[in-house]
Input
Amino acid sequence: MLGKDIIKHAREFSRYIRDFKYEETDTGILFPEAKTRIAGLYEDHLGQTPNLIPTQGLNHILDVAISDEAKLTNFYLALYSGNYTPVAGLTAASFAGDATEITSTSEGYTGANRIAWLPANPASGVIDNYASKAAFTIQTATTLDILGAALLSAQTRGATSGVIISAAKFATTRTENNANVYNLGFRITSTG
Output
């Protein structure tokens, strides 16, 4: 539904964004006149957490689908440890600092970069990586507290470039021990 409706009604969705005729809800973006909602969810061993699609992410999705912006080929999942609730004005440039992105490899997770989001092909208005969740191997002397996650286009931890598509603060802290593998999925849907 996402692709068909947005492409079919490209001008209307562009006008909704330009004229601020959308509502950001706890579960996504609602276009009341189109009776369409775009929403995302993060999924881990404790369940699902609704996301916020910041304005930068929404604009990117619409620009790629119905305008002339080039499609980005890769997206990456990032974890954060700050007591931060994402807001509509969140950008890729502000994410690492505002949310306190986990960038350490000794008190965080192994590997130099954010973990690639590898989704299956979209079907029925849904795209996700649930069949191949991102695996973060925890590296810590004691425990690591994860308070939220985000989906960004820049691979480097702490990067301030690129686009942020989604962010969420978890309802409960995820406390992980050394050598645990924390698996994270992200899904985006469009419903009408």
Observations:
- Residues 1-6 have pLDDT under 50 and may be disordered.
- The radius of gyration is 16 Å.
